[in-house]
Amino acid sequence: MAEAPRSLLFVICGPSGVGKTTLLRELFARDPRLRFSVSMTTRTPRPGEVEGEDYHFVDEAAFDRAVAAGELLEHAVYNNHRYGTPRSEVERARRLGRDCVLEIDVQGAKQVRAAGVAACFIFIAPPDPAVLAERLRQRATETRQDFESRLATAQREMLERPWFEHCVVNDQLELAVHALQQIVRDERRGAK
Ligand code: ADP
Ligand code: 5GP
User: Fold this and answer.
1) What's the pLDDT tens digit per position in 122-153?
2) Is 139 in the pocket of ligand 1 (CB under 6 A)?
């Protein structure tokens, strides 16, 4: 009997507002073998966000318990809120024979790398900083203070781009989705 293909792990990073969620929505619509890892967070849901689909929204105590129990593969504080990847998400993808996608911040990606977990690290970059600020402004989901702090974090995150295996510039959405699809295809070919 042929051996089941091994489940791959893709780690997607990039500054807030660059278009990660938008890109991934497209990617998942086109590739049913990919599975999104639903993170745990202490931030409040944005309008339209669904518990268990976009995030597992929890309070500080529940997050603390998950950390203490060793349930998180990585976790970090971003903009005063905590975010983490439940190990169960990655394990579930593996059991289902699907490739798992983490959409996490750079601190989390560094932890995954330091843990020696085999993964493909992809950075999503904006065509230029002004476009990033405009996208974040147009999304209109942040308070003025959060907006400023996300842009400041974005500047720091952009400095991390060189260590990522791949960088996709999200200028035209369709081209960026194609670039991501190509990376996924190449990784699968390499994993055979
Ligand atoms: P992130 O998940 O990285 O924070 P989002 O996916 O929420 O970013 O995108 C931020 C905003 O930018 C959204 O309003 C989205 O519609 C818009 N956007 C994303 N990609 C593009 C693109 N290629 N061109 C123009 N606008 C985009
Ligand atoms: P947002 O509040 O815009 O949904 O996410 C803020 C930042 O947290 C983004 O950079 C996003 O990628 C990151 N993030 C989401 N989930 C996780 C996670 O599980 N772990 C880490 N480290 N960062 C995450």
Assistant:
1) 999 999 999 999 999 998 888 888 899 999 99
2) yes
The alpha carbon of 165 is separated from its chain's Cα centroid by a whole number of angstroms, namely 15
Residue nearest to atom 20 of ligand 1 (CA): 19
Domains of the chain: 9-191 (3.40.50.300)
Rounded Cα distance between 64 and 142, Å, is 25
Q: What is the pTM of this model?
A: 0.95
Residues of the chain above pLDDT 70, percent: 97
Residue 43: CB within 6 Å of ligand 2?
Answer: yes
Region 40-50 average pLDDT:
95
CB burial of residue 94 (10 Å; 0-12, 13-18, 19+) = middle
DSSP symbol at 48 = T
Nearest CA to ligand 2 atom 22: 108
